[in-house]
Amino acid sequence: MAIDITNLKSKLTAKIAALDGTQTLKDLLFLKKACDGTSVDISAIDTRIQVFENGLTSSSTDKDLLFVNKASIESSAVGGGLSIPVNGVIPMQNGDNLITLPTGEVLLKSGITNTEVDKYPDAIRVAGVTPPRNLSGLTSNSAFCMANDGTHIYVCDYIGSKIRKYTLGGAPVATYPLTHGTGPIGITWDGTHFWVVLHSAKGVFKYTSDFTYANVSFSVSAQASNYRGLAWGGGHLWLLGEDKRVYKYNSSGTYQNFNFSVTQISTPQGIAYDESNDRIALCNSGTNAIHSWNPLNGTYHGAVAYFSGATNLRGVTILNNNYYVLQISTPVLMYTNKELESVGQPLEKLAYDIFPIYVRIK
């Protein structure tokens, strides 16, 4: 004879409704176990457990670590919705795929397994980006690095020794020849002026918005002899060298005696400064991922985006909360939203493994 557990379910539901943040992790785990097989909604328990997981530090006790691990392994999907298959797309417009913790942190449902976990454990996979926009006037050998001024994209034409201006849709607007050297291989905008790295001159040159020379330049040959990009952020210029190091300069061109290694990636090409997070972002041309570092101390923060449909990325710039990247096998422009806000770009998260069902977006 089947046992009627209606009263049990009622008691469990009441206990879950009474959760107020004072419960221990052990209490939550026991309460969760008591709900096994009852069909009681345990989403509130999982939310509380996630708060404990978020608070883990190097000084957390072994017991805390054990209980969090146990709770995660036995976790079920929080907040409803369907599990997403391997390599599936998580529609950001679907509220079932998001959950907001009491801390205000937003989690994205994963359910994805075995998707390049070792390569990009913290990355957002770009499963669908904007349709590639062809960039006329460029070849695969001439397109190097890019910048934006808030309304347009600017790309270095290395072979033509020009800067090419495009709309955000990829339509050509203007071309600006450079006369202070050849081989532009890095460009950035500081809000008022452009700065361009010229390979032949081994220096950085300052220009107005229409690329009139502003009579300011400085040599970077003492730090690096070959270059892969230039960024402005935090009141400083950041030069990416072919030696896989990033060098810091002030606006007067004085080297700040600070640099850090980016050897965590195989082929760094293109650099941008993410003002919203105070991070340096670089393209890894070999894997078509974007990785980030803390510019204050050079700490590596892993991959933050992966363009699964792209080949040979050679430039990145950040505009309106989007990563814009330059693909050079056939010169095209594409972009995706870099945060949780939906702009019609379906995103999926590379999961650590099967659990947790919900994962943090960094």
Question: What does the model show?
Answer:
The chain is mostly beta strands. The chain has 2 domains: 1-76, no CATH class; 133-345, Neuraminidase, CATH 2.120.10.30. 13% of the residues lie in helices and 37% in strands. The protein has 4 helices and 25 strands. It has helices at 6-17, 25-34, 43-54, 62-73, and strands at 98-100, 106-109, 124-126, 133-134, 143-148, 153-157, 162-166, 172-177, 184-189, 194-198, 203-207, 213-219, 227-233, 236-241, 245-249, 255-261, 268-274, 279-284, 289-293, 300-307, 313-319, 322-327, 332-337, 347-349, 358-360. A hairpin with a 4-residue loop joins strand 22 (322-327) and strand 23. Helix 2 runs antiparallel to helix 3 (43-54), helix 2 (25-34) packs parallel to helix 4 and helix 3 packs antiparallel against helix 4. The longest helix is centred in the first third of the chain and has 12 residues, at 6-17. It is elongated. It starts with 5 loop residues before the first helix and ends with a strand.
What does the secondary structure layout of this molecule look like, with pairings?
Elements: H1 6-17, H2 25-34, H3 43-54, H4 62-73, E1 98-100, E2 106-109, E3 124-126, E4 133-134, E5 143-148, E6 153-157, E7 162-166, E8 172-177, E9 184-189, E10 194-198, E11 203-207, E12 213-219, E13 227-233, E14 236-241, E15 245-249, E16 255-261, E17 268-274, E18 279-284, E19 289-293, E20 300-307, E21 313-319, E22 322-327, E23 332-337, E24 347-349, E25 358-360
Parallel strand pairs: 3-20
Antiparallel strand pairs: 1-2, 2-25, 3-24, 4-23, 5-6, 6-7, 7-8, 9-10, 10-11, 11-12, 13-14, 14-15, 15-16, 17-18, 18-19, 19-20, 21-22, 22-23
InterPro entries: 6-blade_b-propeller_TolB-like
